[in-house]
C-alpha cells in the first residue's frame, strides 16, 4: 500500500479485525456484481469505496427515469445510458484506483462459465430467478462463494452461499423450484431505502468473505421487514437430494 492508500483506508486499518492484511486482501480481490439496479448500486459504490481492487459489472439494462427513485449509482443525466457504464462512472468518481470492467450482457449459464475465472466472489443483485439459478450452478461448479440479495415492497433478504464447503447449502437447497412468475419491483413497487439496507448488507457480507471478520454467515438467511422494523435470521440446511449442488 502506498501513502495515499494508507490514508484513504485508514478507518479500515484502525479495525484490528481488518488491519493491513485485510485491506490488502480487499485490494487484491475481484468481485463480480450481477445487476446494477437498486441492490447493485450500493453494492458497487461500497465495494469501490472500500477498495476492492477489481469490479466486474454485469447488466444488459439501460437507465430509466423510474429507476432513479432508488438506484443511486445512476445520475439523472445517465437516463438512456447503459447501467454498467453509468455505475462504472460513479465507482471511478468515488475511487479511481479501482479497476472496473463493464459487461452489458445478461449473466447466463454459458456467459458465467466463460467469465468466472479469477473472480473471488459474486454478488447477485439481479431480480430474476433464472439468473440466480445460473449463478448458483456456476458458483457451485467453480467453487466460488456468492452473496444473494432480494428486495420488493417493504421486505428483503440476504443469504451467503459458500460452495467451497461441501456441507454448505446452496440456493437450490433453499428454493428448489422458483420460477419467474413472482412479481417484480416494476409491478409491485419497492421502498427506496429498502434496497439500500439490503444492498449494504450484501456489500458487508462481501467484505466479510474477502477479509474475514466475525462469524462466517454462509448457510444463513437474514430477512428484513421494513414495516415491522425487524430482522430475522434462519439457519439453512443442505438437502441431501438437492439436484443443484449434488449433480448426479
Ligand atoms: Zn443445493
TrEMBL record:
GO terms for molecular function: ATP binding; molybdopterin-synthase adenylyltransferase activity; sulfotransferase activity; thiosulfate-cyanide sulfurtransferase activity; ubiquitin-like modifier activating enzyme activity. It is an enzyme of class 2 (transferase). The keyword Iron does not apply. Pathway: Cofactor biosynthesis; molybdopterin biosynthesis. Residues 9-243 form the THIF-type NAD/FAD binding fold domain. GO terms for cellular component: cytosol. It catalyses: [molybdopterin-synthase sulfur-carrier protein]-C-terminal Gly-Gly + ATP + H(+) = [molybdopterin-synthase sulfur-carrier protein]-C-terminal Gly-Gly-AMP + diphosphate. Its EC number is 2.7.7.80. Keywords: ATP-binding, Nucleotide-binding, Transferase. Homodimer. Forms a stable heterotetrameric complex of 2 MoeB and 2 MoaD during adenylation of MoaD. Belongs to the HesA/MoeB/ThiF family. Catalyzes the adenylation by ATP of the carboxyl group of the C-terminal glycine of sulfur carrier protein MoaD. PANTHER family: ADENYLYLTRANSFERASE AND SULFURTRANSFERASE MOCS3, UBIQUITIN-ACTIVATING ENZYME E1. This is Molybdopterin-synthase adenylyltransferase. It comes from Thalassolituus oleivorans MIL-1.
Amino acid at each position: 500500500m502506498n501513502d495515499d492508500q494508507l490514508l484513504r483506508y485508514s478507518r479500515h486499518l484502525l479495525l484490528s479485525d481488518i488491519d493491513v492484511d485485510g485491506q490488502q486482501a480487499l485490494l487484491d480481490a475481484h468481485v463480480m456484481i450481477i445487476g446494477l439496479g437498486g441492490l447493485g448500486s450500493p453494492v458497487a459504490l461500497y465495494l469501490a469505496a472500500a477498495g476492492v481492487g477489481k469490479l466486474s459489472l454485469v447488466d444488459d439494462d439501460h437507465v430509466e427515469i423510474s429507476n432513479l427513485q432508488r438506484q443511486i449509482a445512476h445520475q439523472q443525466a445517465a437516463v438512456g445510458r447503459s447501467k454498467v457504464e453509468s455505475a462504472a462512472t460513479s465507482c471511478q468518481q468515488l475511487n479511481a484506483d479501482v479497476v472496473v470492467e463493464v459487461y452489458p450482457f445478461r449473466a447466463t449459464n454459458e456467459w458465467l462459465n466463460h467469465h468466472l475465472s479469477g473472480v473471488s466472489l459474486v454478488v447477485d443483485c439481479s431480480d430474476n430467478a433464472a439468473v440466480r439459478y445460473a449463478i448458483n450452478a456456476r458458483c457451485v461448479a467453480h467453487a466460488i462463494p456468492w452473496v444473494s440479495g432480494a428486495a420488493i415492497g417493504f421486505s428483503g433478504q440476504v443469504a451467503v452461499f459458500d460452495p467451497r464447503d461441501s456441507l454448505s447449502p446452496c440456493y437450490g437447497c433453499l428454493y428448489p423450484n422458483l420460477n419467474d412468475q413472482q412479481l417484480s419491483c416494476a409491478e409491485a413497487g419497492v421502498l427506496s431505502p429498502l434496497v439500500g439496507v439490503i444492498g449494504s448488507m450484501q456489500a458487508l457480507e462481501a467484505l466479510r468473505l474477502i477479509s474475514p471478520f466475525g462469524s462466517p454467515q454462509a448457510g444463513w438467511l437474514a430477512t428484513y421487514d421494513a414495516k415491522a422494523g425487524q430482522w430475522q435470521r434462519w439457519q439453512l440446511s443442505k438437502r441431501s437430494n438437492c439436484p443443484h449442488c449434488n449433480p448426479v
